[in-house]
Design goal:
The complex is a heterodimer of chains A (about 325) and B (about 325).
Chain A: H1 3-14, H2 17-35, H3 43-60, H4 65-87, H5 92-111, H6 116-119, E1 125-126, H7 130-134, E2 142-144, E3 147-149, H8 151-175, H9 178-188, H10 190-195, H11 200-226, E4 228-229, H12 236-249, H13 256-280, H14 294-312, H15 321-327
Antiparallel strand pairs in A: 1-4, 2-3
Chain B: H1 2-19, E1 33-44, E2 47-58, E3 62-66, H2 73-80, E4 88-93, E5 96-97, H3 103-109, E6 111-113, H4 126-133, H5 142-145, H6 152-168, H7 184-197, E7 202-206, H8 214-229, E8 233-237, H9 241-247, E9 250-255, E10 258-263, H10 265-269, H11 272-279, H12 287-296, H13 298-307, H14 310-326
Parallel strand pairs in B: 3-8, 3-9, 6-7, 7-8
Antiparallel strand pairs in B: 1-2, 1-4, 4-5, 9-10
Helix pairs in contact in B: 4-7, 6-7
The chains are: A mainly alpha (about 325), B alpha/beta (about 325).
Bound molecules: adenosine-5'-triphosphate and magnesium ion.
């Protein structure tokens, strides 16, 4: 087994586009769930709206890429308002139900036959990313030790990590401000916060919108990288994967989502390659599993790791143990 | 210090004097009411939990709201502060109607309440709990929150005020602990201190003494009495009659949703309606008498006599059960 190669390919995933996309999605969920206690189970819908914003504007309507960006973000804001206005006055579970339904509605409308002219049906939309790659300042592949990145990938990675950095910075600034304090108060007990003269509804809405817009950025990065906007990428497991990453890294911590995303994608790749290597070398007998099973097995192993984590480190990698201890009181 | 004490009594005397000519009857008109409620009703299914015809709360005084469990006191608080919706009725605070006003606007108007079941924000530190109470914070707007220089100065001032209050409530040593790590009584204190951070005109306390140890009760009484000195009006719910007697200028008695009686503490506590509501069987005795009996032990004897054989019969049954289980 070529461990050097396995490690190299795994480290590529550590900083790869998938890690960026899920880091962004999880940062958004962190604002909503980690800090405010809002259960948004429809982060996939926000990502899809971001992706469709660019794809529909550029390919379907043949308009500018920049307008597409604006439409994607405004679309996420509108979606947050639509979901939030009826539910944020109610108990927390209503938002959860409505968002999970909305997430499927967005996906099913996107892949529907009658919307094919606009959204491209289940095949999705392609041909909207050239404006983005035209901006690419890199003209040559980038080499760094054993790593080599083609200029296209490099451009996505740079833009993606800049976005992650900016979002993390914004969250860091906000959560050490009085605004963030109100959100955390709402998470703990919204009636107490109301009794202190804060408009809880408005703060929840701001949190939902902010998290949703960051989710839309995730969808934009992914569809630009793929050069295609495919609705089925944004099924509900997209959301739950982002939640798993957030909980692994540590909810209500600034760097938790980023760390969680990097670790998960590294581990995915590493497990997959190591298993394949072991099967090829007959370390693992073929009656037990073959190379086609590795995809499923890595999910199982990830699940086991998550369970172990929740047992031994419920606060996540970066979380504060003392906070969890409080729940037991 | 002597000056302080003088003004202390002066404020109390002023409050008592203002209420001197108020008739001792439910719904009595006050000379300078800060809060006026009319025909407030709240049904829970078939139960009429609150049915208040008319009640006024005198500005600058400490008013106690007492009544047996389930009398509707907390529900009445919830209605007044917008946490629950009345089926009918109207009420004004400082002459301004607050009917249908959401809780946060009620608080901003200057009417701040605490909760019977304490609501400490567990995963915030004590000092953050306190800071959250301050109103008009620039850093609470989304855009300015990201520019710390716009709110730093204000935050420092808020922190200073919070620390003063914490010291007064003997919580300064807990400053950086999570509120969730406080004891029940300390949480009560924190909640009260936090409510004061809002800078209220009317403080509404739902059982501030519940769960606070007797040693602290005295200092807490002092805090509540001090609120009046600082020009605030206090309306509090309490079951502890000593507290009511010690600091209340006026007492309102609720029973089954209605206002049963009103008056200064001494008058109200000898009112037969109040004693009926509270004690049922011993309606022909005043509270003071009951207390005397309690102290001399005669009441305990009476109770023991009334209960008679019951415990003597129950004990052996339990006992045999236990031995069977144990062996
Ligand atoms: N949300 C609710 N749903 C149904 N019934 C309620 C509700 N809230 C209160 N009640 C009923 O209304 C009545 C008054 O309750 P409330 O909590 O106001 O009493 P209280 O005077 O505060 O009593 P305590 O001194 O025990 O705190 C009770 O009979 C209670 O069962
Ligand atoms: Mg009550």
């Amino acid at each position: 087994m070529d461990w050097g190669n396995i490690l190299e390919l795994s480290l590529r995933e550590l900083i790869g586009v998938q890690a960026i996309v899920f880091a962004l999605a999880a940062i958004g969920i962190n604002v909503q769930f980690g800090y405010t206690g809002l259960l948004n189970f429809g982060q996939a819908a926000f990502a899809a709206v971001g992706g469709y914003g660019i794809a529909v504007i550029v390919t379907t309507y043949d308009m500018s890429f920049w307008l597409g960006l604006v439409v994607g973000i405004v679309g996420a804001i509108v979606l947050a308002l639509l979901l939030g206005i009826p539910t944020l006055r109610l108990r927390a579970d209503y938002l959860a139900i409505v968002t999970i339904a909305a997430s499927e509605i967005v996906r099913l409308v996107g892949r529907s036959a009658w919307g094919r002219d606009v959204f491209g049906g289940s095949d999705g939309i392609t041909g909207f990313s050239s404006a983005f790659y035209d901006l690419n300042p890199f003209t040559e592949p980038f080499e760094f030790g054993p790593f080599q990145f083609r200029e296209r990938v490099l451009w996505v990675l740079v833009v993606g990590w800049v976005l992650v950095a900016v979002c993390t910075l914004v969250v860091w600034l906000l959560m050490r401000s009085p605004w963030g304090r109100v959100l955390k108060g709402i998470r703990e007990d919204e009636d107490a916060v109301r009794s202190l003269g804060k408009n809880v509804y408005a703060y929840k809405m701001q949190s939902l919108v902010l998290g949703g817009v960051i989710g839309a950025l995730a969808g934009m990065v992914y569809s630009l990288f793929q050069g295609a906007m495919q609705p089925d990428v944004y099924a509900t497991n997209f959301t739950f994967f982002a939640y798993a990453i957030l909980i692994l890294g540590g909810a209500a911590t600034v760097f938790g989502p980023v760390l969680g995303a990097a670790i998960v994608w590294f581990a995915f790749q590493f497990i997959d390659l190591a298993l394949r290597g072991a099967i090829r070398q007959d370390y693992i007998p073929s009656w037990f599993m073959d190379a086609n099973d590795t995809g499923a097995v890595r999910f199982m192993l990830t699940g086991i790791v998550l369970v172990l984590l929740l047992v031994f480190r419920p606060q996540g990698i970066l979380g504060d143990r003392r906070e969890i201890a409080l729940d037991a009181r | 210090m002597p000056d302080d004490n003088l003004s202390l009594t002066a404020k109390r005397e002023a409050a008592v004097a203002a209420l001197a000519d108020v008739p001792r009857e439910p719904g009595a008109k006050k000379p300078d009411p800060i809060l006026v409620a009319d025909d407030v009703k709240r049904h829970f299914g078939g139960l009429l939990a609150v049915d208040v015809d008319h009640v006024e709360v005198q500005r600058g005084a400490i008013t106690a709201l007492i009544g047996p469990n389930g009398a509707g006191k907390t529900t009445f608080f919830n209605l007044l502060t917008g946490f629950d919706r009345a089926n009918s009725g109207s009420w004004t605070f400082n002459g301004r109607s607050l009917h249908g006003t959401p809780p946060f606007k009620v608080a901003r108007a200057g009417m701040v309440r605490t909760f019977q079941l304490t609501k400490a924000l567990s995963k915030l530190t004590v000092i953050e709990n306190m800071r959250l109470g301050a109103t008009g914070q620039r850093g609470e707007s989304f855009w300015r929150a990201m520019l710390p220089f716009t709110w730093r100065g204000q935050e420092d001032a808020i922190t200073e005020r919070a620390e003063e209050l914490l010291a007064r409530f003997k919580l300064d040593t807990k400053r950086d602990d999570f509120a969730g790590s406080l004891s029940g009584g300390q949480r009560k204190l924190l909640e009260m201190a936090r409510a004061l951070m809002v800078g209220p005109e009317l403080v509404m306390l739902d059982e501030p003494m519940a769960g606070v140890n007797p040693a602290l009760t005295q200092s807490l009484l002092q805090h509540v009495a001090n609120l009046r000195e600082q020009g605030m009006t206090v309306l509090f719910i309490e079951h502890d009659m000593d507290m009511v007697r010690d600091i209340a200028d006026w007492v309102v008695v609720m029973g089954q949703g209605r206002i049963l009686a009103e008056g200064p503490p001494e008058t109200v506590m000898s009112d037969h309606k109040v004693i009926d509501a509270y004690l049922g069987a011993h309606h022909d005795q005043s509270l003071a008498e009951l207390e005397e009996q309690l102290e001399t032990g005669t009441l305990a004897e009476e109770v023991a006599a009334e209960l008679g054989q019951a415990p003597a019969e129950a004990v052996p049954v339990e006992h045999t059960g236990e031995t069977k289980d144990g062996r």
